[in-house]
Amino acid sequence: MKLLVNLAYFKHFLHFMKQITVAVLFLIGSISVLRAQEKPIELAEIWNGTFATEGLDVLRSLSNGKEYAVLNLAEDGTRTLDKYSYDTQQQLETIVSSADLDDISDFSSYTFSEDESRLLLATEVEPIFRRSRLGIYYVYDLSNKSTTKISEHKIQEPSFSPDGKQVAYVWENNIYIFNIATENTQQLTNDGKKNSIINGVTDWVYEEEFGFVKAFAWNSDGSKIAFLRFDETNVPEFSMDIYGKELYQKQNVFKYPKAGEENAKVSLHLINVASSEITKVDLGNPYYIPRIQWMNASNHLSVQTLNRHQNLLKLQRIDASNNTVTLLLEEQDAAYVDVTNDLTFLADDSFIWTSEKDGYNHIYLHSNSGELKRQITKGAWEVTRYYGYDKKRGSIYYQSSENGAINRNVYSISKTGKRKKRLTTSEGTNRGAFSADFTYFINTFSNATTPPTFSLHDASSGTKLKEIKNNQALLNKLSGYEISPKEFSSININGNNLNMWMIKPKDFDPSKKYPLFMFQYSGPGSQMVSNNWHNSNDYWYQLLASEGYVIACVDGRGTGLKGRDFKKVTQKELGKYEVEDQITAAKELSKLPFIDAERTGIWGWSYGGFMSTNCILKGNDVFEMAIAVAPVTSWRFYDTVYTERYMQTPQENASGYDDNSPFNYPELLKGKYLLIHGSGDDNVHVQNTMRMVEALVQANKEFDMAIYPDKSHSIRGGNTRLQLYTKMTNFIKANL
Questions:
Q1: DSSP secondary structure of 210-278
Q2: Secondary structure string (H, E, C) spanning 619-631
């Protein structure tokens, strides 16, 4: 009886196990089907728009604070400028459409006159350098729907007068005024000449390093125009061959002051619009004038000046009625003082200013005589963006890293430094675009798992009122791809807790060994470890992860958002501490049980290329492979403003320049090295790569390289990016 019972139990057990086995096999099969539905990202998809996000293009609040304008592009190519209600989020009207313009087939940007009765529309735009553009511009009258061409020539930086009746602009280095009603043009300066004298727009180095192009400004009543004049006569010239498609190449020759060389002599001038009289303002021969801005009083102009070392900044007030100069404040630093766009004048010309003087970037209030009234924000975190001042509520709006250096949130605070309020609650990167009257703001939010979402918020409380766009379609599309999470953490390196992210293969197995591929930029004040949505490189890293690589990024010493001392420790030694941190980080990560210590690579672009080159040389026992795209190989070859800010001049700091210049120790190369550059790079000249190549050749070192004809620092256009990243991917797979 006992045996029969056991046999019956055994039969029941076999039947149960059979069911379990079928269930398990079904589950495994289902997982396999799900995995099969997740395909790896392909290189072509990264560059053909497959993963493009939707946004609000050229969003601008209208002056009533109740409406805003956005550029839209229809599937048939029609461009429209549309007006929306903040409150309802409904489209109210199409302000202008390219389909209704006889003379304009398309326009790429717009600017309202102060009273919003007219628009400047940009067409046929072509780039000069990174920020500068030439274009054909039209005035569009909203009342009668007419268009008026400003000039037959391609011009720069057109700007309405305060009454909207005139447009000032620059053509061939001279300033002009166009009268809209009469269509007459008046030339105000006459000495402009290519590679010699520039009026009203900046030279190459100001554009690149001080971040602005338009170097003129109307005062509040339109009676005066202040402008900067650049005398480039003694600035050395740089030339690049442009190969094009012609039988003979051409040369692009422009003024480029390399570290230690002479800069343009810059001076400040005032134009009396009625008489066309021009007067020069005596500022005592400042070395740089990185900002000019009219104050609320029509005769008061603010000017910021810097010495050559950029460690002494002066904010001065010019009384345009008699050209007298008054010092408002000085900022001094042992290393350098950052130039920002954060200056705001209140009704009485007291002003809001940001400074690092307490060790972190914070907001300060000064009287109209320059006296410090109070520090408004405080703490071991950084104000990362200043949005503006609401005079009705007495509130200041800003973005900061208070919720962790890799995150950004939007805040308000009273100008007394009280009633601070966090207006955004989502963990990640929040950016506010405020209505003109500060009733609303549109928040752009993203993090490592959420593509940009756009939502309307109440500016006083932060309450979310409506969702505008969410890019859910992109998330749905990405659900069909192998996407591995970006894991944020920190790593203790050389006595500092450094921010880090890591991406592992989707089918990560901690018992296996994976090659490590590191990315970094590392330039002063930069940040690569941040909690925001993917850029094109992030999709590339997902592709590499699907191929079995672990990708990591570490922000070392010298990067931003951790205070003044952390950022400025690299002063006079660019490439020393940053390289030490990347080498040490690679060693520490190689100790992880799932990292193959014999397969470590690193790459970077521009400053990052300088870093990756130094890493494979100075860390030749750590890195087996490196890719350098458009690298600086000697800071002697780079421009004055950027380089001397951190290094002083080569004449003052020769060892700082040479001890970390990779072509001075090419014999250290052991691993596989790929060197890439665009021959038309006006920023980091291909000279850097050519000198590195010659050093490696003379050291009898093998390496790979690619030169992209006529391509700029970004190395893009047509299939260029696809071919470039295909080359880098194949190099990684062959050598790591």
A1: T---B-EEE-TTSSEEEEEEEE-TTSPEEEEEE-TTSSS-EEEEEE--BTTSPPPEEEEEEEETTTTEE
A2: CCCCCCEEEEECC
267 within 8 A of 249, measured Cβ to Cβ: no
Confidence of residue 3 (pLDDT cuts 50, 70, 90): very low
DSSP 3-state assignment of 87? coil
CA distance 383 to 301: 26
Say whether pLDDT at 24 is over 70: no
* Residue 215 CA: distances (Å) to CA of 27, 200, 201, 211, 566: 67, 5, 5, 11, 33
Q: How confident is the model at residue 103 (pLDDT cuts 50, 70, 90)?
A: confident
Beta carbons of 342 and 361 less than 8 angstroms apart = no
Digit-coded pLDDT (tens) for 538-590? 999 999 999 999 999 999 999 999 999 999 999 999 999 999 999 999 999 99
Q: What is the pLDDT of residues 502-533, one digit of tens each?
A: 999 999 999 999 999 999 999 999 999 999 99
139-165 confidence digits (pLDDT tens): 999 999 999 999 999 999 999 999 999
pLDDT band (50, 70, 90) for residue 11: very low
| Rounded distance between C-alpha atoms, residue 709 and residue 680, angstroms | 7
Q: How far apart are CA 179 and CA 167, in angstroms?
A: 7
Contact status, residue 666 vs residue 696, Cβ threshold 8 Å: yes
- How far is the C-alpha of 377 from the C-alpha of 416, rounded, in Å? 10
Tell me the torsion sign for CA atoms 23, 24, 27, 29.
negative
CA distances 484 to 403, 445, 551, Å, are 25, 21, 11
CA gap 576, 581 in Å, rounded: 9
How far apart are the C-alpha atoms of 430 and 538, rounded to whole Å? 19
- What percent of the chain stands above pLDDT 70? 95
- How far apart (Å, rounded) are the C-alpha atoms in residues 48 and 170? 36
Q: Is 606 helix (H, G, I), strand (E, B) or coil?
A: coil
Q: What is the pLDDT of residues 260-318, one digit of tens each?
A: 999 999 999 999 999 999 999 999 989 999 999 999 999 999 999 999 999 999 999 99
Which residue bears the tokens 């921010």?
499
Residue at 600: amino acid letter: T
Among all chains, which residue has been given the structure tokens 């009384």?
Answer: 319
Q: d(Cα 565, Cα 560) in Å, to the nearest integer? A: 10
Contact 683, 651 (CB under 8 A): no
Alpha-carbon distance of 299 to 297, in angstroms, equals: 6
- Distance (Å, whole) CA 306 – CA 289: 6
Helical ranges in 526-620 per DSSP H? 536-546, 564-568, 577-590, 607-618
C-alpha span between 1 and 16 (Å, rounded):
23
> Taking Cα atoms as reference points, which of 696, 642, 636 lies closest to residue 671?
696
